[in-house]
Amino acid sequence: MVGNKSMAVSSPKELLLPMIVPQKLLMGPGPSNVPPRILAAGALPILGHMHPETLKIMDDIKKGLQYVFQTKNELTFAVSGSGHCGMEAAMMNLIEPGDVILVASNGIWGERIADLGKRLGANVKVLQNPTGVAFSLKQIEQSIHVYKPALFAITHGESSSGVLQPLQGIGNVCHRNDCLFLVDSVASLGGVPMFVDEWGIDAIYSGSQKVLGAPPGTAPISFSQRAISKFKSKKIRVPSFYLDLNHLANYWGCDAGPRRYHHTCPVTNLYQLREGLAMVAEEGLEGCWERHRAAARSLYAGLEKLGLKLFVEDEATRLPTVSAILVPPGTDWKKVVVYVMQKYRIEISGGLGPSAGKVWRIGLMGYNANQDNVKRVLRVLEDGLNHSRTTSRL
Amino acid sequence: MVGNKSMAVSSPKELLLPMIVPQKLLMGPGPSNVPPRILAAGALPILGHMHPETLKIMDDIKKGLQYVFQTKNELTFAVSGSGHCGMEAAMMNLIEPGDVILVASNGIWGERIADLGKRLGANVKVLQNPTGVAFSLKQIEQSIHVYKPALFAITHGESSSGVLQPLQGIGNVCHRNDCLFLVDSVASLGGVPMFVDEWGIDAIYSGSQKVLGAPPGTAPISFSQRAISKFKSKKIRVPSFYLDLNHLANYWGCDAGPRRYHHTCPVTNLYQLREGLAMVAEEGLEGCWERHRAAARSLYAGLEKLGLKLFVEDEATRLPTVSAILVPPGTDWKKVVVYVMQKYRIEISGGLGPSAGKVWRIGLMGYNANQDNVKRVLRVLEDGLNHSRTTSRL
């Protein structure tokens, strides 16, 4: 023992009680429910972070990510952190202090990319659209001509407002102007068509806890050859060892050298990400996209019957994985959310950032993107609306 | 579907085969085996990152960490990343470009802190000891007088060489010289006495996958009031939003404000960290320390019987959680490691960084730190040595 030293902080009583983890149906913008097969993978025995079986799982993940990203990029792997950590990995490796970067911002994710760019010393320019409105190729092209950025960043699936940003053509515009093209696909990857190589995307990141159905904790990411060239030409080292592409590329077997220890990767989360990717591979990516589109269409039809309107007017730019629904005038959005959670243990979310207080958000992602869940969430939303009206009249 | 567009990357066949995750006994420097109760927590249903049940689990973790750190620091939580990410969180929030920092380096972890300091623009000074040799208080004091650093960093448990660094007295020296005291406790926390408040430690980080028995993916961390003052006085923003203490403090309920969304925390990993801390609370911290000490002593005795020597000569500075054993002249260290893994599925590790090729490393951490495992690892090590000698003579 430690002699007669007394313990200044005693054993916390809270930890002697059982942990409470109820089963809920998560129909918000993520995390979405983890399918039983992936949950089971979370209880598999731990392996070392350099064991051959772990490296094989990492190799499988790489293949699976190349498939869902539709890319042949050798530098495709998963960052050991949340989707936001993926954003930081992309930005830290691609920009240097003083670089001009242009960020398309129509919701919280654009704001965050811009904020991070400033933290990293970039000269950040913002192309602003109102919340809920996608950017046109012409807008983007004009803005790139004005600012001549070294990097242009845009969000594919703006989960705060339910906007799906069309990406075709942007890569060409960027490359004609010697600019890297960075995409945030946290809320969209696997749920809508994505063609990283064909669309000329130079860097893209996502999260494990959305369509891929794994718990949060890993962030898929991919870099083009053009991005690697920019990274290699940087004069200043990355302000992080954890996210340094040189080390990550080696650890993930993306370079020619023998794999060296870099950090202790979240082994269990990798099992789960691998299983999520296996489920997409088994279903087929096109089938997975179609399932999400069909679920979203059924949701739109049901919402119309309830007299509700979608926040994004243009159907072509609606994100199937996360729908933002306008809160009707006079309705207390929070009352509905709380009622549905308390009565049914179903999550419907409010807005976030610029959309806070204006919308509800319903997620249809991965395992949860099916017709039964659409019916269920519409039923409880209707009940919630009735409850809110009844109690408001009291 | 996506019209008649063809898929450039087809579904990977590797993902249609089952994942292979064998059961092994991990007696290396970590991750160590995850106890059944914590594995089971990994398969619990997912909750949202802002749900009250999740916030309660985070509150429990905070209490548990205050207990294992022996601190009343309000700013005590877990970073969403590996132990190395914890190092980055501490360094990014506490140092500014141009700051002089002093790093005590006698193994890989000191080297890494120094490297990170340079990446962050600090003026890094290194107090160097040979691998395997702890620092004396006098050495540290003299070096602080010479360099007058804003921060002094040292590793409590040098897992690359098996050194336990005595920490008593360093805090006073630092504070008398207006210097913050930073400690890496990744390999030591929970396995040896630690008194953050009493020892005047200003910032300390650890990892989930060592003594605490959870999978890798979360990094316990704690900051003193002195550290917070330094953070608040910084002129330049943290080059990361993910690791920015202002946001993390709020998300973890360590400030007065209502908790706001910051990033999507690894919910499942938090369940598991909470259960790991609950197991320490149930056993009692002093009992946990004692169990590790007793296991290490049995290991030392057994190694002596095998004619093996420990790398760290001074028993008072031997780390109970990770022991480095000198490879006898003429013995092929790798042959032993490979044999033991292939025949028994038991992990014994080689060296790392400065100790590579010179030592084996045996970990006795958390769930694995018991007398049965000590006997088992000694038995297989003996068999491995015999095998290596026999085959060398052929």
UniProtKB/TrEMBL annotation, chains A, B:
It comes from the Eukaryota. CDD domains: AGAT_like. Its cofactor is pyridoxal 5'-phosphate. This is Alanine--glyoxylate aminotransferase. Its EC number is 2.6.1.44. Coiled coil: none annotated. One of its GO terms (molecular function) is alanine-glyoxylate transaminase activity. GO terms for biological process: glycine biosynthetic process, by transamination of glyoxylate. InterPro entries: Aminotrans_V_dom, Aminotrans_V_PyrdxlP_BS, PyrdxlP-dep_Trfase, PyrdxlP-dep_Trfase_major, PyrdxlP-dep_Trfase_small, SP_NH2Trfase/AEP_transaminase. The modification N6-(pyridoxal phosphate)lysine is found at K210. It catalyses: glyoxylate + L-alanine = glycine + pyruvate. Keywords: Aminotransferase, Pyridoxal phosphate, Transferase. One of its GO terms (cellular component) is peroxisome. Substrate binds at R361. Belongs to the class-V pyridoxal-phosphate-dependent aminotransferase family. Pfam families: Aminotran_5. It is an enzyme of class 2 (transferase). Residues 48-372 form the Aminotransferase class V domain.
